[in-house]
Design goal:
Elements (H helix, E strand, L loop, with lengths): L7 H7 L10 H10 L5 H14 L16 H19 L3 E6 L5 E7 L7 E6 L10 H9 L3 E6 L15 H18 L4 E7 L1 H10 L8 E7 L5 H11 L4 H16 L8 H5 L6 E6 L7 H10 L4 E5 L7 H4 L1 H13 L5
Parallel strand pairs: 3-4, 3-5, 5-6, 6-7, 7-8
Antiparallel strand pairs: 1-2, 2-4
Helix pairs in contact: 1-3, 2-3, 3-9, 4-5, 6-7
């Protein structure tokens, strides 16, 4: 469920393979020139970054997950379990049209009995709604209505470019409106996202357009900003982030309609109008644990739970019982959630 820059050699190869990459180094330079940028090497590397992180990719089969990679194997198993739960649980398939005309697919699982409490579960990068099946099962067992969507450029939803939470948070405002229309104006909605989904939830927490029915946000292993996440991974591969990212951001704006820096949960959480629970793995080196502490520093009223020894997206799977209890404790303290 993560974009990958395997190493610096792969970046250079990606930027030159016309048959396998949507933007080649040549087309990257054309885009860069259009944006007033002339540095060819950063443009080629920026193109590789955009292709790795932003351009839609075919889904990766969970049957081919590398069992030696604990995160990949665990998330693949979770997606299989999630699909089985979704297939076995009564639900409605919904669609909405995003502000840019993109058709989005979602899945609504009404609670077994009448309920106003509703959770929106938001998956991460290169995943789909099925990744959140374990969370959905837990919430529905506690009497919640459950809604999950395939983010744009993922699963059954349309779109060619990943939103990194920025485009997605506008999409979820539409889903929230649909849910309020279905559940009623007394709906009490919790947003719970993982990784990029956690970033989306935090971006919503600070949105001036957030409906009053949203009562709490739970963000698990979010990045502090997409710009900081990309910079971290580029520097880890000894690549010049300060040269690559401005070019990549221009490309992202021209292709996907937003700048990478706009996807900033760090800015949004400072404006959060609802209670926030931040969860992060203590051994997360993908979105490093320090990012959770940055987010908490920006909003000291938020709850922060660092899960010892948990890798990226692994906090739930490290100790499901403790995870469920921590979430339940947080929600019990919110009188309207």
């Amino acid at each position: 469920m993560a974009w990958a820059l395997a190493d610096s050699d792969e970046l250079h190869v990606l930027a030159r393979r016309a048959g396998r990459v949507v933007m080649t180094a040549r087309s990257a330079c054309i885009l860069a020139a259009a944006a007033g940028i002339t540095a060819a090497a950063p443009a080629g590397l920026a193109a590789a970054l955009i292709n790795a992180a932003i351009v839609r990719k075919p889904p990766v089969s969970d049957e081919t997950a590398d069992d030696s990679d604990l995160v990949a194997a665990t998330t693949a198993a979770a997606e299989r379990e999630g699909r089985a739960w979704m297939a076995a649980t009564p639900h409605q398939r919904w669609t909405v049209t995003a502000h840019d005309g993109t058709r989005l697919a979602g899945y609504y699982f009404p609670a077994p009995g009448p309920a106003h409490r509703t959770v929106i579960l938001i998956h991460g990068h290169r995943a789909d709604a099925s990744l959140m099946g374990n969370f959905a099962r837990d919430y529905r067992a506690r009497g919640f209505n459950v809604f999950m969507a395939d983010n744009r450029a993922h699963g059954a939803s349309g779109g060619c470019y990943v939103g990194m939470g920025w485009l997605d948070h506008f999409d979820y405002l539409r889903w929230i409106s649909r849910l309020v229309g279905t559940v009623g104006p007394d709906a009490a909605i919790v947003l719970h996202g993982v990784s990029m989904g956690g970033a989306t939830a935090l971006l919503l927490s600070g949105s001036p357009d957030l409906p009053p029915q949203v009562r709490a946000v739970i963000s698990d292993c979010s990045f502090s900003s997409a710009y900081a996440e990309f910079a971290y991974h580029l520097r880890a591969r000894h690549l010049p982030a300060r040269l690559i990212l401005p070019v990549a951001s221009q490309m992202c704006r021209m292709l996907a309609g937003y700048r990478i820096a706009q996807a900033s949960p760090l800015d949004a959480i400072a404006r959060a109008a609802v209670p926030v629970l931040l969860i992060h793995g203590g051994a997360d080196t993908y979105n490093p644990t320090a990012m959770a502490r940055e987010l908490h520093a920006a909003q000291p009223h938020a709850d922060l739970w660092i899960v010892p020894g948990a890798d990226h997206v692994m906090s739930y799977f490290t100790d499901p019982g403790a995870y469920r209890e921590r979430v339940e404790q947080f929600l019990r303290r919110q009188p309207h959630a």
